[in-house]
Structure formats: structure tokens, C-alpha cells
Amino acid sequence: MNDSMMGKKLNEILRFVYSYLIKMGASKEDAEDIIQDTAYKFLIYIDSIDIVNIQSWLFRVAVNQYYDLSRKKTRRRDILLKFNVQEIFEEETPEKILIQNELERDIHEILNKLNPKYTQLLLLKYSTGLKLNEIAELYNMKEGSVKTILYRARKEFIEQYRRYENGQGK
Predict the structure, then answer these.
(1) CB within 8 Å of 110: residues ≥ 6 apart
(2) Which of 4, 21, 35, 79 could be a cystine partner for 26, CB 3.0 to 4.6 Å?
(3) Residue 25 gets which letter from DSSP?
(4) What CATH number has the domain spanning 3-85?
């Protein structure tokens, strides 16, 4: 087999492997990279490959590279899920700290104007993250009663917040 015929046959096999990789779920760019790497490996190991098994060798090399790439992407995605990238690059500037402190002060001031029961339930629900049934158990109340009180508390908080923002509460 001369070089020209072998090149055509290799190109034909690699096109078939490329379409198979696409069907497996590889992106166009990843499939192209894998095919290029497979062809490169073929040229490096051409002397040690049995001429009868070229198609199966190319196929196996490309599929294994796809599996490796998929594992790497999964690991990378898992690592990114563990770390909030935005938190890593977000700086605690003095301005942000000052604004946060002012907001906390405003919220506490508004909470102090509310009915104490409303304040307690709002804090239990939104600061500690307790569920409605857990709050109901704490106060020996029905879950429906807790829901109603929280609804009224939120409504009152919003009303007080609007007044505060409009300068009536300061």
C-alpha cells in the first residue's frame, strides 16, 4: 500500500471515528482535537501497529481519549461546584463592609419597631432557617398559625421598611 492510498484510508477511518465521537456527545471542537491527537499517535506508533488492526486501533485510541476528556471535564466541574468562583475573586472592600453594616443596622431598627412575636418568627424563619413545622413545634402552635403570623410579619416589615426609606422612620 503506497502512502497516498494509506493517507486516504486513514482519512476515511478518522472521519468515521469523528462522526462516532459526535454521536457519543463530544463537541465538534473536542472531536476534532481527539481525531488530531489520534492521528498523531498513529504516526508515532505506526511501526508497532498491525496493519490488519489499524481501524480498531484508531477507534479504540480515539474513544479512550474521549473518555479521559469526559472524566477531566467532570472533575473540573465538580471542583468548580465546590468553590464559588465569584466568592474567591470578590473582595471585602471597606465600602462593601460599610454598606453591609448600615443595612444590618436599618434592618435591626425596623425589627425593633415590629410586634415582638413578629420579630421572633421572622428571625427564626430567615436568620436561622428553621422550617415552618419546626417553628410551630417551638411555640406549640399549628403550622397554619405560624404561616399566618409570618405572612402578617412580612407584610408589616415591608410597610415599616417603606416608611423608613421614605424618611418617616428616621
Answers:
(1) 157, 160, 161, 164, 169
(2) 21
(3) T
(4) 1.10.1740
